[in-house]
Structures are given as structure tokens and as C-alpha cells.
Design brief:
Radius of gyration: 14 Å
Structural class: alpha/beta
Distance between the termini: 21 Å
Helix content: 25-40%
Order of helices and strands: HEHEHEEHHEEHEEE
Shape: globular
Number of strands: 9
Largest sheet: 6 strands, mixed
Length: 155
């Protein structure tokens, strides 16, 4: 569902999307294919970046529209949409930096969270974005209950 929400929000025509913890690049690629002109993907694992770059090429994504980074430091502010499919400790550690990169009114999709992680992540992001979450969807599947998409927020 996070992928579907990312594609839907990308179809709302954001100009700049940040995919934090991009892994294989699936959310970045989906945003690019949905017509977002500028997507920045941040991933610390060099093997994942190599894989994501190959996946982007397989999907005929233009190098001018999708960019891969290993840190947040070189990024500029003004992202219209944040996609972050990553674990709670990382979302909390980088919360202030991620919020600072967002444009006013930016959409936020946080996914990949255990249900038990939700209260702390929502508390921090709600405080940083000055508003409560709009949506919470639970993933149903194997293992512990997870939150596939913890929230879609407007800054």
C-alpha cells in the first residue's frame, strides 16, 4: 500500500520527492514513472545504491530526474513529498533533518514500522510537522503486525 500511496501522491504532481532509505529504489522509480521531475534517493548501503541504479536503468529512468545519494548532507530543502520505508531508530535519528528538508505542505509517507514503533514515531513527526497524522493503515500478513503506511501528512 505504501507503493500505491507513493504513486498516488506522485500523481498529485510534486516537483521534488525525497526517498529516504531507498533500498532497491522501488519507491523512487515509481515516483519517477509517475512523472515527478526530480527524485532524490538516499541509501547508505553502496550495494543497494548499485542495485537501485541498475533498476532505474531497467525502467528507462532518466539520470536527470532520479539521483542517488549516500547521505542527506548535500541535499537542498523544498521537497514536496517524503517517502521513508525504514526502521524506527533511523526515522527517529533523522527526524529533524528530514523535516527540515520538506517544503510547507509536503506529503509524508512513513512505512516499514512495527505496530509497537508507531507511537514514538508518530509523536516525533507530529511535533515536527505541527499536526496529527491523517491516516494509519495496518499491514496484514505473516509475523508480527506491521504498519505498512503509518501516515500521510501535509506540512
Amino acid at each position: 500500500e505504501a507503493l500505491g500511496d507513493a504513486v498516488f501522491l506522485a500523481s498529485q504532481k510534486p516537483k521534488r520527492v525525497l526517498d529516504f532509505g531507498s533500498g532497491s529504489g522501488v519507491l523512487s522509480i515509481a515516483a519517477s514513472l509517475a512523472g515527478v521531475p526530480h527524485v532524490d534517493a538516499v541509501e547508505v548501503d553502496p550495494l543497494a545504491i548499485a542495485n537501485a541504479t541498475a533498476n532505474a536503468k531497467l525502467n528507462s529512468i532518466d539520470d536527470d530526474s532520479l539521483h542517488f545519494f549516500s547521505t542527506l548532507e548535500s541535499l537542498n530543502t523544498g521537497y514536496d513529498l517524503l517517502l521513508a520505508n525504514i526502521l524506527r531508530p533511523v526515522l527517529i535519528e533523522f527526524s529533524s533533518r528530514l523535516a527540515a528538508l520538506l517544503a510547507p505542505g509536503a506529503g509524508v509517507i512513513l512505512s516499514g514500522l512495527l505496530e509497537s514503533d508507531l507511537p514514538s514515531v508518530l509523536e516525533i513527526y507530529t511535533a515536527l510537522l505541527n499536526r496529527p497524522p491523517q491516516k494509519i493503515l495496518k499491514k496484514r500478513g505473516m509475523g508480527s503486525p506491521c504498519v505498512e503506511k503509518s501516515q500521510v501528512l501535509k506540512k
